[in-house]
Amino acid sequence: MTTPAKPRTGTAKRFGGSLPLALLLLGLCFAPTASAEFVSAPLPPGATSIRTLAVLDGSTWAAQVLPATGPQRVSVTSNRGVTWTDVAGLLSAGETIAGLAAAPGQTYRAVIALTGTPAKVQVKSITRGGTVTNLGAPFVRSSLSQGSIAVDDDGTTWVPQSFVPLQTRTWGVVQVTTSGQITDVTGPAGLNPSAVNAIRTPDGMRVWAAPSAGSFRVEGTSLVLEGPEPVLLRDGQLVFRPNTTSYDGGEHFLAKPLRGVVRGAPGQPPTTHLRFGARIATRFDARLFRAAPPILGAVVSTGTGFVASSATAILVNDGDLPPWPASIGAVLPDTTAMLARANGLRADAGLPPLIGDALLAKAARNHANYDKQWDEGHFETSGRAGFTGIEPGSRCAFVGTTCNQEVMYRGLSGSNAVDGWIATPFHRPALLGPRAGIVGPAQSDGAGQTTSVMESGENLQELVAEVGYPQGTYRGPLAFHGESPDPAGDCARIGQPVTYPLGAAVTLFAPGAALMTGVREVGGAALPGCVLVDVFLPEHPLVAGRTYEASGSWDLGGGARRTHTWTFTARPDGPPSGGGLTLPPFPLLPKTTPPRDSTRPRLTMTSMSPLRFRAAARGSSIVKRGSSRVAFTLSERARVRFEVERVLAGRRSGGRCLTPSRAARRAARCTRYVLMRGAFAYTAKSGRNTIRFSGRLRSRKLPAGRHRLRAVASDSARNASLPRRSSVFTIMR
Questions:
Q1: Is the Cβ–Cβ distance between 334 and 444 less than 8 Å?
Q2: Which one-letter DSSP state was computed for residue 616?
Q3: Within 13 Å and on the Cβ side, how many CA atoms surround 16?
Q4: Which tens digits make up the pLDDT trace of 385-425?
Q5: φ and ψ at 239, to 5 degrees?
Q6: pLDDT at position 637
Q7: Cβ contacts of 425 within 8 Å, gap of 6 or more
Q8: How far is residue 653's CA from residue 637's CA, in Å, rounded to a whole number?
Q9: What is the rounded distance in angstroms from the CA atom of residue 392 to the CA atom of residue 388?
Q10: What is the distance between the alpha carbons of residues 341 and 352, in angstroms, rounded to a whole number?
């Protein structure tokens, strides 16, 4: 984003960096730090580390042990590790454990990598007492990710494979039933996943293939793509999302791995470490989950508590997960006041409160004092008084933490600065975004013009359904008079000119790519304004006491979209205490004018399958299931217009391919591509996209015969891609 030289409004800065947590200053470890409810359980004797912990209940576990010397082994316990028993007869010389998981009926499953050529694996069942039984015969295996196996409710073991066998370049999953029956389930051709994982979800078994392949369900002996990055919801429950897996009916799930900061030696900067741990997240409401401390490794709910494991520890919690504190460290009054205002607005929208972090606030205050003196926006110059880092990430590291976003406001302080941020489209997510979690707002010291800064740390929430803002009661400013970067300039560039003052922005937050449709007054006409992808900017200020209806949609993956409509009432109870001001007009003074986007989207048609199908009897051109799946990739978010070219025979004459005629019957044959009337469009995200084409155009079936799709992508700046065409397909009678 553009950084202003002397902005008179808030300025937002996003940057790459690790996720912060002040609780981690002593280093990332798996010992409990926030709750005495987690207690340590003994590791198996002689274990330097454990690779996998399979949990049957709060007391009964199986651990894959990595000893300092000697072969791997599996040990079982029924009393929380007070005593461990090694499983006998599981491994022969040279064999290794390729996977371990809990199974129904108080049993475990182990996948053993056998010796010999070709490489094979054997699925074995282990009772809670340690008795081993082979399930079926050994089968050829290829690449198998550690810990990637899972067991279905009926006891069937799912063993994912990257290539089976290696020479055929096919991939999929092998299902082994309790009676030993073996079934090969193959994934679609043309994909080349580097990792394949079986996942047990509340909605049934899934296979997740990475990178960027997607989530698959089993139909017969084939894996069928559900979406490249799906958020699977059933009855309001989170079933699956990349890096977030629900395991107990959707009430909890594992959140993505986190980073932490270790304080350096005196005079040395802190260092950032990544640990392959995770947070356990609990349901906040139907729309989002909230992560809870402490940092844990693999976590399993036992119904009444949790069992967590890392490579070197096993932790047991018999009660509920501990809540987050109101703040991390001692925060100063200005931070408390800004948090109170932000959390009041979040409560109006039904969102969980932000958590103040003393170290993030310290980094923010340092920069606010620097900017008040030197006026450099989001940057600092080494050697000047008050310098703590060139950019926000280094300034957070200076105080011993990490951050991922910074917003600023010159001229307003306290709750007024919060109001200045939340009315605008680009600053709002840092405070009112549903995912926002740990923050550190602060203001400059002393008299004179105040600079307010907020550093954002770790996002604690995981969004699983759409959230519109404002919603319910909105007590914030009804208008704003400018922002840097300048949204009015963006609107002008896409042909939707608006002038300040603009009404408070209306935003659709969603798990997938969101697109606002518009806003109307309830019982009245649609508001004029500008759509900037997931934000609608009313051309005129909102009116106090009036109720508005907003609408938009978001991408579910696999070509499906979900619409969302919500209402909000603009500040019906008057300005709140300490805030609610309408901001004065002011000029925008960015350092540089953002260059006009003149880069064409890059569109690539990757596949279409099947290439022979019957046109749907009814419906639109794009459908949710059936017909032919069209896959394509984009370099940026864009709207893709599809047309259909009919493939017909022709005769070459004068360098052109013409309609066959009697006069040209002896001319060379050629193929004509005739553009048919009509088109259909799809708003696609950056990266891989799929749609299902029904074989219909302009509400009619395509005629039987050969055709191909012609596609052109246009971005928000109206740059058009080069046309791209699909493979030729045949509409059957």
A1: no
A2: P
A3: 0
A4: 999 988 888 899 889 888 888 999 888 888 888 988 989 99
A5: -95, -50
A6: 83
A7: 483, 487, 505, 507, 532, 535, 537
A8: 42
A9: 9
A10: 13
Burial 331-359 (b: 16+ CB within 10 A, else e): beebbebbbbbbbbbbebbebbbbbbbbb
> pLDDT digits over 90-124, tens only?
999 888 898 899 898 899 999 998 888 878 889 99
75 vs 251 pLDDT, higher one: 75
Q: Of 409, 438, 442, whose CA–CA distance to 426 is shortest?
A: 409
Average pLDDT over residues 271-284: 61
Strands of 168-263, DSSP E: 172-176, 182-186, 195-201, 204-210, 214-219, 222-227, 232-234, 237-241, 244-246, 252-254, 258-262
Token pair in block for residue 182: 């073996």
Write out the H or E segment, with its range, that includes residue 629.
Answer: strand 628-634
CA–chain centroid gap for 119, Å, is 36
DSSP letter string over 313-326? -EEEE-SPPPPPPS
Amino acid letter for position 592: T
**What pLDDT digit, counting tens, does each position of 67-97 carry?**
878 888 999 999 999 999 999 999 998 888 9
Both structure tokens of 162: 């990257």
Beta-sheet strand order (sheet of 514-521): 472-474, 560-570, 547-557, 514-521
What is the SS3 assignment for 511? Answer: coil
Q: Residue 725 pLDDT > 50, yes or no?
A: yes
Question: pLDDT digit string (tens) for 377-391?
Answer: 888 888 899 999 888
Q: In sequence order, what are the residues at sequence separation of 6 or more whose Cβ sits closer than 8 angstroms to the Cβ of residue 718? A: 494, 495
CA 659 to chain centre: 51
Q: Which two tokens stand for residue 471?
A: 């919603």
DSSP state letters, 239-295 = EEETTEEE-SSSSEEEPPPEEEEE--STTS--EEEEES-EEEEEE-SSSEEEEEEEE
Q: How far apart are CA 476 and CA 502, in angstroms?
A: 14
Question: Residue 159, Cα to own-chain centre: how many angstroms?
Answer: 26
Neighbouring CB atoms inside 10 A of 134's CB total: 12
Smallest Cα–Cα separation from 601: which of 723, 507, 503, 700? 723
Which band of pLDDT confidence, cut at 50, 70 and 90, is reported for residue 30? very low
Tell me what pLDDT residue 167 has: 52
Question: Above 80 in pLDDT, residue 147?
Answer: no
C-alpha closest to that of 135 among 147, 144, 127: 127
Give CA–CA dist 421/412, Å, rounded: 10
> What is the rounded distance in angstroms from the CA atom of residue 636 to the CA atom of residue 640?
11
The SS3 assignment for 397 reads: helix
Q: What is the pLDDT of residues 433-475, one digit of tens each?
A: 998 999 999 999 887 778 899 999 888 887 878 999 999 999 9
